[in-house]
Amino acid sequence: MKLFEPIQIGNLELTSRIAMAPLTRCRAVQQNTPNEIMVEYYRQRAGAGLIITEGASPSPNGLGYRNIPGLYNQQQLEGWKLITKAVHEEGGRVFLQIMHTGRVGHTNNLPKGGRLLAPSAIAQKGDISTYDLGRQPYPTPEAMTLEEVREAVQEFRTCTEMAIEAGFDGVEVHGAHGYLPNQFLLPSRNERTDEYGGTRENRLRFLKEVLEECCDAVGSEKVGLRISPFSYADVDDDEQELIATYTAVIEMLGPFDLAYLHLSHMGDPVPVKFEMWQRIREKFNGPLMLCGDFTKESAEKALQENRADMIAFGRDYIANPDLVERFKNNWPLTERDNTLWYGDGAEGYTDYPFFEG
Ligand SMILES: Cc1cc2nc3c(=O)[nH]c(=O)nc-3n(C[C@H](O)[C@H](O)[C@H](O)COP(=O)(O)O)c2cc1C
Predict the structure, then answer these.
(1) Does residue 179 have an active-site annotation?
(2) Catalytic residue among 179, 196, 232, 260
(3) CB contact at 8 A, 200 and 243
(4) Which end of the chain is more exposed for a tag (fewer CB within 10 A), N or C?
């Protein structure tokens, strides 16, 4: 099967085309620092062709959720080092996902000195779990000054450098799911009148500069990007504008020669999403990874039909640390159980069994 064929990503030879999707698990309970159970969790899943870690913030301002990890200080770097070492010892490969939550957060979740910053002072709809206040509506973020936008770009660069220092094989910039780079992309959340808002070119500028800095810092072969055309759009985002925006993103990516582009889909399947995926496949030259609702069979079909080069699995990786082996041997999968996705201990995290016949 194509799923089990090796593939070259940047300078890396991956053992299969199966990736572990980035999964926030909220176990970094002490000062957003990776800890021993996280080491164990990733070690167990090192059989993936590529692990993409849970989103890690490049800044105190990007830690909008409870107990998510960061990578902007030495203590966090030392924690991640243990994870990359464990994965490499098992023969795995691992990229750090850099996730800046921007407006998708709560001030009660931010560490001391952290601020809820976004392109514009427009609140995310809905509510969010906090450390001390239970569930709360998303607060209205502060609109970033021009200087703060430039600082945020530099935070992505520094985080990328620290990731390589911590032993990661590369980084994935999280440009999907409504987080900071995505907040700049769409007019429903970006009403800036400076060079980072207004025209499509201006709305793309933040993402472009982030990629320029990350690639300049460590080489484009170590930088991947995740986007989610049509998932996490707001109802007031116009469909034609979304198509035009994401088409412009793909054109912008041309010269970068990234390690890969990762397309994520969550929520109801909308035909236009998949038309967009196809259009992206035609326009984007590098390796393409797809994620969202795949089974072993549908993943193999997508590879056979040349719609993608790799497939990432999210929820099935939570419950099946040995997912590749289970697929290879046609072993049954452990059922999904969403009750402990965001728990704070080993239960529902590192206690999923490897298959025993
Ligand atoms: C518990 C949980 C946490 C997630 N955390 C992240 C994350 O940190 N970054 C990200 O890009 N996507 C995240 N996702 C989305 C997954 O990467 C993936 O796109 C999604 O689960 C769909 O793939 P699946 O159908 O194989 O599960 C998360 C999904 C779940 C269920």
Answers:
(1) yes
(2) 179
(3) no
(4) C
**Nearest alpha carbon, ligand 1 atom 31:** 315
199 C-alpha vs ligand 1 centroid, how far in Å? 30
DSSP 8-state symbol, 336 = P
Distance 195 CA to ligand 1 centre (A): 32
Alpha carbons within 13 angstroms on the beta-carbon side of residue 154 total: 6
* CATH dotted code for 2-340: 3.20.20.70
Q: Work out whether strand 50-56 and strand 288-291 pair parallel, antiparallel, or are unpaired.
A: unpaired
pLDDT by residue, tens only, the chain of 357 residues: 999 999 999 999 999 999 999 999 999 999 999 999 999 999 999 999 999 999 999 999 999 999 999 999 999 999 999 999 999 999 999 999 999 999 999 999 999 999 999 999 999 999 999 999 999 999 999 999 999 999 999 999 999 999 999 999 999 999 999 999 999 999 999 999 999 999 999 999 999 999 999 999 999 999 999 999 977 776 678 889 999 999 999 999 999 999 999 999 877 777 888 889 999 999 999 999 999 999 999 999 999 999 999 999 999 999 999 999 999 999 999 999 999 999 889 999 999 999 997
Q: Which atom of ligand 1 lies closest to the CA of 172?
A: 11
Q: How far apart are CA 225 and CA 223, in angstroms?
A: 7
For the chain, the domains span 2-340
